[in-house]
Design a protein that fits this description.
428 residues; alpha/beta; Aspartate Aminotransferase, domain 1; Aspartate Aminotransferase, domain 2; 2 domains; seven-stranded mixed β-sheet; 13 helices; binds pyridoxal-5'-phosphate
Length: 428
């Protein structure tokens, strides 16, 4: 008898963030369409978290497929030092003008983490190249910027980084700004100003940190204060970019322009991995020299892959259609109505929504084992209902592709209410 995909998988695959000894066998997915994925037995799954926050227009979108096929007939790949090609140039030409602030140059890499590595290298070397010593980097507590070593260093120290903590560079972690602490935060920045070279932050929402949302005006106040000390501002828009928070980019809700922006995830509509780091002319010009040492020595074999660039261009076509913004608005309206329903539920706290993101916490006991049991409960509940939701600790969130229909949203909301009922019965 033919073995199933999930049986063959267990024999050869090591999955991300997965304790392979205890994890249940993975579901074998064979096809995707819109907000739906289908497994090898023909069951349908509703992708309520956009396949790790990457998918914005739905799975296997025909426009993206067509543009990919057209590019595949022309050029698959070509070295990107000393050579260039149409999709890479077009994408930069079309993307830079719609980014917040004065982003003038675009650097390609492979994924979100590498986009962050490039941003960090740009700021560190910016200070070296301009002959000043600003060696400290600031970040938020609970931040997440990726899994490579530089990106891990500027992320929260947690169970995810524990094994590597001794190998990470030191970072100053700031509290998220609140009306109460903003004055203190500014004073803290004053004391760090002489050393601080850059501040990296996820604007408006800390994603992996638990969909923690914070105020745009307070972020702006903090950023403006950093700017008075010439601390370079790196906006990590890897999750928030391409419409996730309502506006095209989260930084569109903030006055102070960033020096550097990191993009990935939605950039290709959730099709192939690509990272982009953009910067102002001020950053770029600091690397122009007859001195070789001032070059940005960074690159990857598949930098600016033409197939991936063509896909990003196709995704951008769809993103800029008025129907995309209308869909995001529709989801936001539905989310806010459901948030009111949720807030009445005794098992629920901190209901919040921004753009197409809805998040809340499930009230649990104080101990970790309680939260661990909850994770197991949630996982099996939603998998049985074939709704793809993946909690962050006791935080549950919906972050759907923008093409999700009202009926499909109702199905997700309904499954959450059913879960809360079952949870209340079983645990309260
Ligand atoms: C996902 C994410 C990253 C890392 O991107 P990868 O492509 O997974 O390496 C970095 N920053 C933020 C804010 C993210 O959400």
């Amino acid at each position: 008898m033919q073995k199933s995909l999930s049986e063959r998988d267990l024999a050869v695959i090591w999955h991300p963030y997965t304790q392979m000894q205890t994890a249940p066998a993975p579901v074998g997915i064979v096809r995707g369409e819109g907000a739906l994925l289908f497994d090898e037995e023909g069951n349908r799954y509703l992708d309520a978290t956009s396949s790790w926050w990457v998918n914005i227009h739905g799975h296997a979108h025909p426009h993206i497929t067509a543009k990919l096929a057209a590019q595949a007939a022309q050029l698959h790949h070509c070295i990107f030092a000393g050579y260039t090609h149409e999709p890479a140039v077009s994408l930069a030409e079309r993307l830079l003008p719609i980014l917040p602030g004065n982003q003038r140059k675009l650097f390609y890499s492979d994924n979100g983490s590498t986009a962050v590595e490039v941003a960090l290298k740009m700021t560190i070397q910016y200070w070296k190249n301009t002959g000043r010593s600003r060696h400290r980097i600031l970040a938020f507590k609970n931040a997440y910027h990726g899994d490579t070593f530089g990106a891990m260093s500027v992320s929260a120290r947690s169970v995810f980084t524990k094994a590597f903590d001794d190998f990470l560079f030191e970072v100053v972690f700031l509290d998220l700004p609140t009306a109460e602490n903003i004055g203190g935060l500014k004073e803290q920045i004053d004391t760090l100003a002489a050393e601080a070279g850059a501040f990296i932050f996820e604007p408006l929402v800390l994603g992996s940190g638990g969909m923690m949302m914070y105020d745009a005006a307070l972020l702006d106040e903090l950023l403006a204060h950093c700017r008075t000390h010439n601390i370079l501002l790196i906006a990590d828009e890897i999750m928030t970019g391409f419409g996730r928070t309502g506006t095209n980019f989260a930084m569109d809700q903030v006055q102070t322009p960033p020096d550097i922006i990191c993009l990935s995830k939605g950039l290709t509509g959730g099709t192939i991995a690509m990272g982009v780091t953009t910067c102002t002319n001020d950053i770029y010009n600091a690397f122009l020299s007859t001195d070789k040492l001032k070059t940005l020595f960074h690159g990857h074999s598949y930098t600016a892959n033409p197939l991936t660039c063509a896909i990003a261009l196709a995704s951008l076509d769809l993103f800029l259609e008025p129907s995309c913004a209308a869909n995001r608005q529709r989801i936001n309206t539905r989310h806010r109505a459901f948030a009111v329903t949720l807030a009445y539920h005794p098992e629920v706290k901190n209901v919040r929504s921004l753009g197409t993101i809805l998040a809340f916490e499930i009230v649990t006991g104080e101990t970790d084992s309680y939260t661990n049991e909850l994770a197991g409960f949630l996982f099996s509940f939603f998998r049985e209902k074939r709704i793809m939701l993946r909690p962050l600790g006791n935080t549950l969130y919906i972050l759907p592709p923008y093409c999700i229909t009202d009926e499909q949203l109702d199905e997700v909301y309904g499954s959450i209410l059913a879960m809360l009922e079952a949870y209340g019965k079983q645990w309260a």
